[in-house]
User: Which sequence fits this backbone?
């Protein structure tokens, strides 16, 4: 898994490449939590290069979203879900709980609404 980031207007665009599963989810969790500790509280996870997510990955994003919303008055958005990943979000009902966008720019702009 590879994680990179760019920041614009206080929104962290986090680009994830690779499977988001039990073997890699702790890497994503640690990366985002480190940024949270440094004062970042608005994140867009760009999932364009994520072909797969499992229940461990879903748990990580739910806990991060809960913590951002509760402790930091921040939030987590998702952009560019691959069809298989989008299906997992739909089946689990997370598409009703988490905000998902077709592109990263719209996801980032949603923080200023």
Assistant:
């Amino acid at each position: 898994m590879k994680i990179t980031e760019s920041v614009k207007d206080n929104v962290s665009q986090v680009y994830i490449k690779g499977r988001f599963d039990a073997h890699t989810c702790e890497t994503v969790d640690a990366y985002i939590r480190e940024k949270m500790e440094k004062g970042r509280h608005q994140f867009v996870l760009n999932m364009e290069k994520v072909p797969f997510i499992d229940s461990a990955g879903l748990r990580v994003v739910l806990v991060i979203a809960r913590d951002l919303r509760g402790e930091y008055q921040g939030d987590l958005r998702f952009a560019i879900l691959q069809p298989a990943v989008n299906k997992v979000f739909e089946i689990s009902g997370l598409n009703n709980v988490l905000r998902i966008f077709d592109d990263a720019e719209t996801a980032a702009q949603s923080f200023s609404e």
The two ends are 32 Å apart (CA to CA).
